[in-house]
Amino acid sequence: MADGLKIFVDDNRFPSPEYDKTFQGAEFFIKWAKNNQDAKIKKLSLDHDLGVNYMDGTQLCQKLLTPNSKGQILLPETEYVQFHTNNARGWKNMYKLFRTAKEKGLIKTEICPYLVVATDGQDRDEAFIYDFLILCNC
User: Fold this and answer.
1) What pLDDT is attached to residue 122?
2) What angle do CA 112, 118, 119 make, to 5 degrees?
3) What's the CA gap between 41 and 69, in Å, rounded?
4) pTM value > 0.90
5) How high is the pLDDT of residue 81?
6) Over the stretch 79-134, which tens digit does the pLDDT of each residue have?
7) Which of 8, 70, 107, 111 is deepest in the core (most CB within 10 A)?
8) Is the dihedral of CA 47, 49, 52, 55 positive or negative?
9) How many CA atoms lie less than 13 Å away from 71 in the CB half-sphere?
10) Are 95 and 130 in contact (CB under 8 A)?
């Protein structure tokens, strides 16, 4: 996919300048996805902990990847997804949901196999495979 949007979903971090769209919560991204099913996403970066009393990253992934009665999913065509959360269990759950969707043939998305460190205005694609990945049995 040569063209496509770069999307960042996080409730409190600011994205690096490479991103075209930022959503401060799962509900906002879901609304956008429903209204933009023909969109092409080049890179999707997801946080897990998206605020108290709001949908979290695992719930977001479930909503995006669960087929409807016609076998269609809500996630628009997406080339690459990464997870930039400090929540090890959340990372594992989101990763597994995407991996399962890919195994079922629901998506063709390349899934980043490690946690990406995202701090305000920075996004580093480095293999930060911490001890928590071992603790999670990932």
Assistant:
1) 54
2) 175
3) 24
4) no
5) 96
6) 999 998 888 899 999 999 999 999 999 999 999 887 776 655 555 544 444 444 44
7) 8
8) positive
9) 3
10) no
Residue with tokens 């769209």: 21
Shortest CA distance to 78 belongs to which of 30, 45, 31?
45
Whole-angstrom CA distances from 127 to 6, 14, 44, 84, 133 are 20, 21, 17, 12, 12
List the beta strands (DSSP E) in the chain: 5-9, 21-23, 40-46, 77-78, 80-83, 110-111, 117-119, 122-124
Distance of alpha carbon 113 from alpha carbon 137, whole angstroms:
14
Q: Tell me what the mean pLDDT of segment 50-58 comes to.
A: 92
Taking every pair of C-alpha atoms in the chain, what is the biggest distance, in angstroms?
A: 41
Written as six digits, the tokens of 98 are 């995407």
